[in-house]
Amino acid sequence: MFKHKNTVEKTVATSAPVILSETKDPLTQTVRDSSVATLPQNDKKPPASEADLRELIEKNLKWSQIIYEQNRKINRKLRWSAVAGWLRLALIVVPIILALWFLPPYLGQFKEVFENITGANVSGDKPNYSLEQLMQLLPIGEAEKEQLKTLLK
């Protein structure tokens, strides 16, 4: 599972793993390439004793418990992140829905106020502004107003 950064595993035609690595000789302090090593196909290990098997089972159970606890913590964090995501979405969508529900009566009042301020007809008809009225709204001098009149005519 974990390998040194200089170790690479490859397989050859015999399907046995080949390990290529560089090793540093501690006595001579030199780096040398190790030769290609193949694992024997028929390794016969001596049968394990009952005590060894019991010890392995106990280690396996301990690791399983640790992994189970980690998974529970991860699952809890994922659940809370999903809940937080839905709350964030609700914080955005609920005010929009409430605004669409409650604002239309107030928009009618604003339309009347806007018509009174500007003198425009907001109901859909085109406003009937003359060129003189538009010129009065612009913050420009008299000379520029005369130039605009000559350009637009």
Describe the protein's architecture and organization.
The chain crosses the membrane at residues 80-103. Keywords: Membrane, Transmembrane, Transmembrane helix. There is one protein chain. By secondary structure, the chain is mostly helical. It is built from three helices and five strands, in the order βββββααα. A three-stranded antiparallel beta sheet has the order 1-2-5, with no helix packed on it. A hairpin with a 5-residue loop joins strand 1 (8-11) and strand 2. The protein is rod-shaped. Residues 7-21 have low confidence and may be disordered.
The Cα radius of gyration reads 41 Å
- The largest beta-sheet arranges its strands as 1-2-5
Number of helices: 3
Q: How confident overall, as mean pLDDT?
A: 74
Strand content: 5-15%
Give helix and strand order, one letter per element, not per position: EEEEEHHH
Helix-and-strand structural type: mainly alpha
Keywords: Membrane, Transmembrane, Transmembrane helix
